[in-house]
What does this fold into?
Amino acid sequence: DAKTTQPPSMDCAEGRAANLPCNHSTISGNEYVYWYRQIHSQGPQYIIHGLKNNETNEMASLIITEDRKSSTLILPHATLRDTAVYYCIVRVEGSYIPTFGRGTSLIVHP
Amino acid sequence: ETGVTQTPRHLVMGMTNKKSLKCEQHLGHNAMYWYKQSAKKPLELMFVYNFKEQTENNSVPSRFSPECPNSSHLFLHLHTLQPEDSALYLCASSQGSQGAREQYFGPGTRLTVT
It folds into this structure.
């Protein structure tokens, strides 16, 4: 699986959009971009995934650059409950996730 | 509530004890996983079961012994553990062979080895 690079930490004001970047410059053509998050003392939670088109669901939006070398997870209206570690992972669909990396610790403040 | 439950939520055991962690999924999935999350380290995959058959063992020491009696239940038997085995142990499940689009995780068991 291709390697990803994420900032170690970010903060965001409640009610504002949180934009979490991820670099994956060595991504290959059949690798998807997945995002999970882990709230303190809980198991990771799947958020969204995509191949090359932008994706949106009830939790977030995923914007993937045209060259697919980077992506951004957008939480449109962050709440205090969105405070968590966010993991960006690239993998071939259907393959296992060997490690989650260190992710970005997002703190949403009032 | 993800549909994946784990018991116990917390466990303290001595190095000579034998204990088991239990995971149950109510999602009708056919793949189940054990992960280990140590303090300050990324989440690490330990074992994968697909249709009750072990398909992945990520170089895990033999003091960890998994068991998957059916597609809904997964156990991790522990014996003669070391203090460095203290960690959060997470179970996950997914639909489809060789992983899937998304995995659903349980809340984890916080294990402390004394």
